[in-house]
Amino acid sequence: MRIAAEIRRRRFLQTLLAGFVTASGWNAWGAPLDNLRGDRVGWARLKTPSPHWKRHAGSDPTLTRFFRDQTTLNIDPVWYVADADDLPALCQYPFLFSQGVDRITGQTGQSNLAEYIRRGGFLLVDACHDSRVTPDFEEFLRQQISFYTAVLPEAHVVSLPATHDVYRCHFEIPGGRPPHTFMSNIFDPKKAAHGLYGVVLDQRLAGVISLCGWQCGWDHVTEFSSLAPVGTDVACMRMLVNIYIYAMMQGSSSSL
Amino acid sequence: MTQVEWQFGGWLRDWPPLAAGGLFAALGLAGLLYVVWSYRHTRSDWSPNARRWLAGMRAGMVLLLLLCLANPMRVEQPDPPKHPTRSLTVLVDRSASMSVPDHRGETRLATAVRHWRQAEPAARQNFATIHYARFAQDAQPAKSLEDAVNTGAPGSETHLFAALRQALAENPTAIACLTDGLDTSADDAGKFAAEAMERGVPIYFVPGENRLLPGANLALREVRAPARVLRQTEFTATALIETTVAQDQELPVELWVNGKELTATKLPVRAGRNALSWPVTVASGEPGTLSLEFRAGNQSASCVADVVESQTMEVLYYQGALQWGYRFLRGALESDPSFRLTAILNPALQVQLAAAPVNGTALTDLPEDAAELRRFQIVILAHVFADQLTPRQQQALVDYVRGGGGVLFIAPDTAATEGFSGTALEQMLPVVFATPGGADDVALMQMRMQLNANAAIGGDDQMVGGSPNIVLRPFALPAGAEQAAGRRLFADTNGDALPRFAENARVRRVKPGAETLAVSGQGAPDILLARQQFGSGFAAALTTDLLWRWKMSLPSGSHAVEKFWQQLLLSLAQGAGEGLHVVRLTDSPAVNVPANFLVSAAAENPPKLEAVAPGGAPQRLTLTLATTADGPAWQAAFTPPATGQWEVRATDAAGRTARVVFPVGEKTASAELLNLPADLDGMRHLAEITGGALVDGTTWFQPSQEAAARPPAKLPEPLWNSGALLMFALGLYAAELILRRRCKLL
Questions:
Q1: B45: which chain A residues are within 8 Å (Cβ-Cβ)?
Q2: Which of B172, B326, B423, B695 could form a disulfide with B89 if both were Cys (CB 3.0 to 4.6 A apart)?
Q3: Angle at B556 between CA B552 and CA B559, to 5 degrees
Q4: CATH homologous superfamily of A38-255
Q5: Domain B217-309+577-671 has what CATH class?
Q6: What is the pLDDT of residues A72-130, one digit of tens each?
Q7: Residue B710 — pLDDT band, cuts 50, 70, 90?
Q8: How do residues B69-81 score in pLDDT, each as one tens digit?
């Protein structure tokens, strides 16, 4: 059977344009990103025995793109993995993101993490707002503090005041209060009352503990519901950019 | 207009053009016929329009592929010489050195004029107008070459660079200068070279030479050492010597410390005028006072340095890009309370951290005044880009180092360092950066392509177990004698304790006189760390990252990183300013001619200054406050009444003494009349960096811009391997596939 096929001029031009755009995109992929940046650094998540250690990691590139758009940080657009049991892997990254360190119960993982922080690494712990992952935020905070107390006894955990530089070193965080995300977008005043907690070692901020669930924010989990405040994702990413930059550039001990 | 020829590349280049063209025409025709035939006999029934479009695209791709295979090359022929309305300024050196005849009665001026006559026809062909001027102390216009050569008496000094500067101000197309290249004023040749290079006006030199027997002269002009040094450390003391000799030889020099000879060597001296710098590393030893006396020929000069138990090192850190090195550098320095770090981030980074005021003043950006920098012993410039520093900020840094400060420039990015090529900052640093668009850029692009190849975005499982696979490479000590300084810096370290880096910038070369302290250890080594003395201070370049990955790779109990940074900064900081020392300002003191001196001391009150006659009778000199680029100092003058070895001695309130010993002759030995050989090397260098040349009978006067823009004859440039062409072919193919799919052929 013979098939009649008619190609109109408009259709042809559209198709041809699509081909060129595709090819141009491939070509642009290899172009240099930006000349005015520092040395390249990777974004990594801490791999722990917890089954949730990489929850929302698929949206981490959203965050790294935000970094590159809003700052001159030369950060890799991909996310990497740093296994707590592999000290050299941990030490590839000056900044690690974690869902929680309390699940690291092995001696190797614990001593590795302590050594990582003593060498100068920075660890950000951010609790997922999902009640299946973090059933009790107060308990979550206690677990994190207990971990540091046991593993890194020379460090101490302090509540960061609203006047801290971390709330204004790059973006101005309104009121010095970190943005929160909530399960099913139902406001939880008990959770929202928490600010940030800093892990201080030798007069420097070596880590931050957050109950805010920023990762759920930039993964747009909160926007599935119409009740989600507009811009929550950006607010979460701004807070994270501030913490990252503060970790890099923190100055004298007086700012703690 | 550029004339363009085409030729086939690869193996076809050897074929006669007709044969190669015929072959590809035949292949192309065969391909086109096949395409048309294949779309005429399709299995499905297509409209004529569809056949035409698909055949056209397939034919286009076939032709493009054939074009790639043919490897066509673009060959440009240079344009014929132009005769636009360009102007040439001819400067004639009428100083005394140009007018002294040799035993044949030949003057340098006559030689230069004879050479110019040979080149003049070419100049007249290339320049519509030629202006003439003569100069010695001042430049004055002349009506013709004869007028410039014959009018007026020879001048007593040669202000060559001032005359060239004045000529450049008139914006001529080119300058031709008939001279022996000897500037006998105190003008800075390097500074003028930078200015001339920036202006881009080609300077042609017509050298004037004759056979006069050159005289000789020696001046131990100045010695420099830090005012204070830490106990049990090393510091650098430097002697600045000017000498003029008739032929290449060696000059014996010695350094005596507290009355004992520390070291002696022979400095190579080339024929003509030499400005020598002899830096010597001195061990400070225990607290006390060190008297450092340099000796050269029949002259000597001394200064003093205090050895102290401890001192605070004020460090100013300036960062131009967001990166992690600061966190770790700060940690390394603050592990020693004697280091105090003040950090400034480039305002464009939009990072606002509570900054502690320094001496009551909070810095928000790099100062534009060297005086504001003097409170610091070291300034670190980390990851800075050229467009972030204003010319005034760069000049402040240069003045700061010249006055005794230390600058450490850190950049691991070749592209960033290229931006500093030709800047005032580069003039100060110990390395010459590559220029943009050079071979290093190709390597840089390849590296970026490789990095971007990893840049894939995926879901939660993406990159599980992945890592950036960054390999740290170790520093290595350079081969050869110059490694001594590097060994001292990395003293008490073994291979494991040497710094390790992840990235480094490539520089073109290390400057003559600079010390290479570390190189990369693999293949052709890159320069990683180099330093040089600049004025009274030190400038260093570290072409790696800030070594934070090295810190992260070491056990937390290791202090190798802290030790490296602290030792490096200590080696660059030379204490607060210079110690007590005397500088002789008069080149060749003579009887009944006033001689001038400058006294510097890190003190509020002036020291006592005496002139001691050859017989030993002292004469108190009056000091007046003077301001120099290096800070406050005192000036004095006296008129020696007799010939012989005179001494000028400064004594401060603590009884420390610095002095200069020099001969006083019957009459002043003017540099102008020492019959110094023509400075051919200097003229050649200046000509080359501006795009000019030393003129001879074959000189072709073409401005540098045109010469640079004009490709050399027969410059083949492959045309087929462009991204745009390949993209076009790919687009055709993609469109054809999509259309075939729509036509149910796929």
A1: 2-5
A2: B172
A3: 95
A4: Domain of unknown function DUF4159 (3.40.50.12140)
A5: mainly beta
A6: 888 888 889 999 999 999 999 999 999 999 999 999 999 999 999 999 999 999 999 88
A7: very low
A8: 777 766 655 554 5
The Cα of B387 is separated from the nearest Cα of chain A by a number of Å equal to: 10
- Cβ contact B320:B333 at 8 Å: no
| pLDDT value of position A25 | 47
Task: Find, among B527, B486, B550, the residue nearest to B332 by Cα.
Answer: B550
CATH code: domain B315-446+468-572 is: 3.40.50.880
pTM of the model: 0.59
How far apart are the C-alpha atoms of B591 and A177, rounded to whole Å?
81
Q: Where are the domains of chain B?
A: 3-73+717-742, 87-213+677-709, 217-309+577-671, 315-446+468-572
Domain ranges for chain A, please list them: 38-255
A61-70, B445-454, B733-742: which has the minimum mean pLDDT?
B445-454
Is residue B107 pLDDT above 80, yes or no? yes
The fold of the B87-213+677-709 domain, in CATH, is Rossmann fold (3.40.50)
Predicted-complex ipTM score: 0.83
What is the C-alpha separation between A51 and B243, in angstroms, rounded? 78
Query: Which of B 309-368 lie inside 8 A of A, CB atoms?
Result: 321-328, 330-331, 343, 345, 348-356
Query: What DSSP character marks residue B504?
Result: B
Name the pLDDT band for A15 (thresholds 50, 70, 90): low
> What tens digit of pLDDT does each residue of A150-179 get?
999 999 999 999 999 999 989 999 999 999
Between chains, do B354 and A168 touch, taking CB under 8 Å as contact? Answer: no
CB spacing of A80 vs B323 below 8 angstroms: no
Chain B closest-CA separation from residue A249 CA (Å): 6
Question: CB contact, 8 Å: A36 with chain B?
Answer: yes
Q: Judge: B413–A39 Cβ closer than 8 Å, yes or no.
A: yes
Closest approach of chain B CAs to the CA of A45, in angstroms? 10
Q: Which chain B residues touch A18 with a CB distance below 8 Å?
A: 734-735, 738
Domains B87-213+677-709 and B315-446+468-572 in one fold: yes
Q: In A, which residues are within 8 Å of B413 by CB distance?
A: 39
Terminal-to-terminal C-alpha distance of chain B: 50
What is the residue whose two structure tokens read 């100060």?
A: B428
